[in-house]
């Protein structure tokens, strides 16, 4: 049957309004739960750099948040390695809320860099690892991660990577434990103290045991691997100033690191 | 489809809740008229999500929900939907349902959301959904439409779950994330280890498994493409 134009328009308008209300209603209703889920996810990723994935999986959401509160102290530093507490408008900065994607678009010297210090339970002056955030571009979309450095500020204790749209089974494998574990024990500075970063190599299946700055690559995902390499190099370089400050500053609570 | 128009004519005033005809609505798409293996629809997501069992299960449940609800909604509205804009209306309903699924996943299963959000979004373009709306829900009563949607979604689900089972087992050596290869190789001593097949993790693996399933099925049912 052929309906009049007026009928079609009325029908479309009503349909749009009903569906629109339904969607915005759901979004309102689920908003707070989603926000919590995102927060939990970020904290899980941060902890993932120092804990084994199976340990995190064994914890309930409340336990993870509780563990995070007790063991992680976060701060924000600038490109010179100075701690900053307020942004340009005078708002207090919270490391967990620093939008790394937004900062990525800025001049590296003007970015804010969150630092997460993993320490003994409730005791900030007994650090066990320094976790930094990294961000960059993969093949299709953004990639990000957290990298934990041992107290020598050189040896990598662990990494977690995340991605938005890398190819499943290829580039997306950067989120897998067995890929991330390849970074453990690698070093970012060479023996003379020069910054080297760590880089995935082309091809997969080679053993890079004993090579401090090389990591087995991802077969079929060279561009993602290159993205990961660039991400680590860019951000570790940017954090270098902070690391050096930590090493020099004897009054700092992290001075015990040395 | 000819069988469906024939069913319309023989409809009686009061029909058993699960009459033979209605059972057929559910059972037909499982094997004889399977959306993936016979109609070869919905291949895109069948390749993409099936590297592991768990996301595949979530995807299957999402598709079942979307198809049942979309079929129901369209069937309820079938006499009011203007025929000239019916595709847009179907699209709007499906898109809304898919967004709902996505929002719920984001709130209650964030890990799954991260893994699946792209593919859940792609349910909108899954030919099975639109195909059933256009071919069945627009011309049939709500209850029948629900059964039809459920049947087709189930037919889709069991195939992707079967594909995922083999891909995860052979590609990652586990099922539902539980390691299978490790304990087995443990039985044969320290130095023995079963190698996982990287091909199974890539989409190519899904094509191979799917091809084998279709081969086995068509050998058994004797189905020939015309």
Automatic annotation (TrEMBL), chain A:
Keyword line: Cell inner membrane, Cell membrane, Flavoprotein, FMN, Ion transport, Membrane, NAD, Phosphoprotein, Sodium, Sodium transport, Translocase, Transmembrane, Transmembrane helix, Transport, Ubiquinone
Protein location: Cell membrane
KW tRNA-binding (keyword) present: no
Catalysed reactions, as listed in the record: a ubiquinone + n Na(+)(in) + NADH + H(+) = a ubiquinol + n Na(+)(out) + NAD(+)
Modified residues annotated as FMN phosphoryl threonine in this record: 222
Signal peptide (UniProt feature, chain positions): none
Bilayer topology: Single-pass membrane protein
Main location: membrane
Transmembrane segments: 6-26
Domain FMN-binding positions: 138-239
Cofactor dependence: FMN
UniProt-listed Enzyme Commission number(s): 7.2.1.1
Family the entry assigns: Belongs to the NqrC family.
Quaternary state and interactors: Composed of six subunits; NqrA, NqrB, NqrC, NqrD, NqrE and NqrF.
Function statement: NQR complex catalyzes the reduction of ubiquinone-1 to ubiquinol by two successive reactions, coupled with the transport of Na(+) ions from the cytoplasm to the periplasm. NqrA to NqrE are probably involved in the second step, the conversion of ubisemiquinone to ubiquinol.
Protein name, entry field: Na(+)-translocating NADH-quinone reductase subunit C
Gene transcribed to yield this protein: nqrC
UniProtKB/TrEMBL annotation, chain B:
TM annotation in the entry: 57-77, 89-110, 116-133, 194-216
Keyword Translocase annotated: yes
Enzyme Commission number(s) from the entry: 7.2.1.1
Pfam name, any one: Rnf-Nqr
Keyword Protease included in the entry's annotation: no
Chief location: membrane
Keywords from the named record: Cell inner membrane, Cell membrane, Ion transport, Membrane, NAD, Sodium, Sodium transport, Translocase, Transmembrane, Transmembrane helix, Transport, Ubiquinone
Membrane topology type: Multi-pass membrane protein
Localisation: Cell membrane; Endomembrane system
Matches recorded under InterPro entries: NqrD (IPR011292), NqrDE/RnfAE (IPR003667)
Catalytic reaction annotation: a ubiquinone + n Na(+)(in) + NADH + H(+) = a ubiquinol + n Na(+)(out) + NAD(+)
Source superkingdom: Bacteria
Complex formation: Composed of six subunits; NqrA, NqrB, NqrC, NqrD, NqrE and NqrF.
Function per UniProt: NQR complex catalyzes the reduction of ubiquinone-1 to ubiquinol by two successive reactions, coupled with the transport of Na(+) ions from the cytoplasm to the periplasm. NqrA to NqrE are probably involved in the second step, the conversion of ubisemiquinone to ubiquinol.
Family: Belongs to the NqrDE/RnfAE family.
Protein name: Na(+)-translocating NADH-quinone reductase subunit D
Annotated organism of origin: Belliella alkalica
Gene name, Swiss-Prot/TrEMBL: nqrD
